[in-house]
Amino acid sequence: MKTLRGSYKPLKNSRGMISTEFIFALVLCAGLCIILFSLNFTLTMAEVAQYIAFSSARAHAAGHVDQDKQEQLAKDKYKELVNNPILKPLFNSSAGGGWFKLSDDIDVRGGGPNGRNFDEDYPATADRAPQVGVRFDFQPKILNLKIAFLGSTSEDGEGFSAKITGFLIREPTQKECWELQVKPRYTNILNLESGRFKLLGSGGENKYVPMEDNGC
């Protein structure tokens, strides 16, 4: 113990301490600035991703020949926007590269007699419309940071992710309108008794012409 006490020499000046504190504060402030920039840029690009979802849902909502064609239009619109020359370097759907990652494909659910919807994920009550539209994953890889003195923002390496949705009720297709409205109405008109209703002149059956408006 005497040897240790004899070799211990306390620091008798504080020269350089200001420099040390300045370097520490500078690194800390730089880390906070990086976090704020990443967060602000992520929120901005999330709005762009939301617009992509809306545009895809709008393409899906328009009436067409059948439901498969409506879903294909939504997928085509999604790929068109993601592969835009301006957005593609940021929204890189492939592994690696890009500050953000979107799903390789979009999940389209249009409901209908034989279709699916998102009610299992977003339960609809009696006074709400069915949850139909599009959805895809949004992963901001820019938020996977390792900041000095602050640590890492991701422990498992996966980082943050969110679901981007665009719910718009689609218009009925030509096929649905024919099977559910036009054909039954046409058949019922033909089955009416001639004494109760006269079709447009004599000959009846060939005089009725179904007219469609956007599929109906």
Question: Explain this structure to me?
Answer:
The chain is of the alpha+beta class. It folds into two domains: 19-171, no CATH class; 176-206, no CATH class. It is 39% helix and 11% strand. The protein has helices at 2-7, 17-61, 67-82, 174-191, and strands at 100-102, 107-109, 133-140, 146-147, 151-152, 162-167. Strands 1, 2, 3 and 6 form a four-stranded antiparallel beta sheet that branches. Strand 4 and strand 5 (151-152) form a beta hairpin. The longest helix has 45 residues, at 17-61. The mean pLDDT is 77.
List the helices and strands and how they pair.
Blueprint: H1 2-7, H2 17-61, H3 67-82, E1 100-102, E2 107-109, E3 133-140, E4 146-147, E5 151-152, E6 162-167, H4 174-191
Helix and strand string, N-terminal first? HHHEEEEEEH
Radius of gyration: 31 Å
By secondary-structure content and strand pairing, the structural class works out as alpha+beta
How many domains would you count in the coordinates? 2
Give the terminus-to-terminus CA distance. 98 Å
Tally of contiguous helical segments: 4
Largest sheet: 4 strands, antiparallel
Shape category: rod-shaped
Low-confidence parts: none
Fraction in beta strands: 5-15%
Q: What's the count of strands?
A: 6
Helix content: 25-40%
The averaged pLDDT comes out at 77
